[in-house]
Design a protein that fits this description.
The chain is mainly α. It has one domain. Helices cover about 70% and strands about 0% of the residues. The chain has six helices and no strands. α2 packs parallel to α4, α3 runs antiparallel to α4 and α4 packs across α5. It holds the Pfam family DUF6247.
């Protein structure tokens, strides 16, 4: 990969339920579906599409981050899960430790 290719923008995700859902990690799709169903119910109650727009905006941002770096997003989800369940995340290494480990 060239340096220029590494900085090419990722194609934008359309703000449609189908496009957003396709860009999400499989483990997030059920939450997306539930949020969409809830927003649709609110839209009917309020006679406004704003709840649907809000949910699509929220999940579009998540889908955009996910598409940019799925592995980093998955690591973030794991850290959140560890924090919420009270598990101690593995100790992070200092810069000095990383340099020593890599022989720098």
């Amino acid at each position: 990969m060239t340096a220029a290719a590494a900085h090419e923008p990722h194609p934008e995700i359309a703000k449609t339920p189908e496009a957003i859902r396709a860009a999400l990690l499989p483990e997030e799709r059920d939450a997306f579906d539930a949020d969409c169903r809830h927003a649709l119910g609110q839209a009917v109650e309020q006679s406004s599409l704003q709840p649907v727009r809000d949910v699509l905006d929220h999940w579009w941002r998540i889908a955009t981050v996910t598409r940019h770096d799925p592995a980093a997003h998955r690591r973030m989800l794991a850290r959140v899960d560890q924090t919420l369940t009270g598990q101690t995340p593995p100790r992070l290494r200092t810069w000095d430790e990383l340099r020593t480990e890599r022989g720098l």
